[in-house]
Amino acid sequence: MRKFLTRTLALLVVMTALAGCKKDTETTAPEETTAENNAGTYDPDFTGILDDYGYLKGMTAAECVEGLDFADIQISKSYAERISDSYADYVVKEIQTKLADEVTDRAIIAGDLVNINYSGSVDGVKFDGGTAENHEVTAGSNEFIDDFLTQIIGHETGDEFDVEVTFPDPYTNADLAGKDAVFAVKINSIKEAFTDEFVEKKQSEITELTGVFGLNTVEDVRKHFYDNYYDYYVRNEIVKAISEMDVVKNVPEAAANYAKKALDASAYTQYGMTYAELAKQSGVTDEQIEAHAYQTACGEIIFQVLYEEVGWKIDESEFQEATGLTDNTEMIAVYGKGYIARNVMYKRAQNLLKERVTYIE
Predict the structure, then answer these.
(1) Does the N-terminal peptide bond of residue 170 adopt cis geometry, omega within 30 degrees of 0?
(2) H or E segment at 136?
(3) Is 103-193 in CATH node 3.50.50.60?
(4) pLDDT in tens, 72-118
(5) pTM over 0.85
(6) Domain map of the chain by residue range?
(7) Are 248 and 65 contacting, i.e. CB atoms less than 8 angstroms apart?
(8) Distances, alpha carbon 117 to alpha carbons 114, 127, 150, 168, 291, in Å
């Protein structure tokens, strides 16, 4: 029902990190908070700030910026591809972990999910971080150094044996770089490989687990989650880049008010408190809160430049899709039609900007 509200929270999280609104230690939101146990008040109605189409009232965003060129946003295509591929690997392994059947009648083959114990040593001396129990790995993959996980292929449950590898040079631990190591390994259990046959056999369970229909092959699974993460990453990079742009000449009162109110909307929806209260619980100062609100306002102005350029007008079907409701009467009465419309335009803008930014290797 309130899924459209999540976009500002995502912007809040990204821009907070960029604005430096944290202490040296990582901060997290409280685990259990409700509106009842927080004293902050919040008025969710945006009608005084936004018109019915989601535009900030009383201002023209194009007049507030100078030197704005969305092509200045650069996104590393190779990095986006690499982390999207890693995410697809992660999803496959999660599905395999939860749904694959245990194998007891054959040796390990490439792609099997294998539970192992291992203990590594160099020159007969064990080293920190080289020992683990009940660790799940994919046979034949490059999750571990060298050809470690290729060497477990052919072994069976209960086997104990040594794996010999060489640490790469350079390596994160300089003391191990280039060193030969021996790992004592025990195979605890084996789960079936993630193959087309597996996907076909477990199709209904995969659908229930992921919420995605029509995944018939390994390629279908990998492509769906690769594409989803690639899209997520690019969108996120666009938002971050816009938050860093130094092109806003002035911030009208409407933009400043909207930024503070939108941050409150997201924080209150998620945690039952205003953004300032949430931020202060994480050790953020008043000055940092103000700086973040200003930066958020700048980002909203830049996005509205695009809204004005295209001249979007949101229709009723898009309102319904954004809220997940056939009847929007109550939602509009609470938030105002403009707030829903602006969130729809925000997603549209990200899609459009994916075609305007510059992709580099």
Answers:
(1) yes
(2) strand 125-138
(3) no
(4) 999 999 999 999 999 999 999 999 999 999 999 999 999 999 999 99
(5) no
(6) 3-68+245-360, 103-193
(7) yes
(8) 10, 15, 16, 22, 50
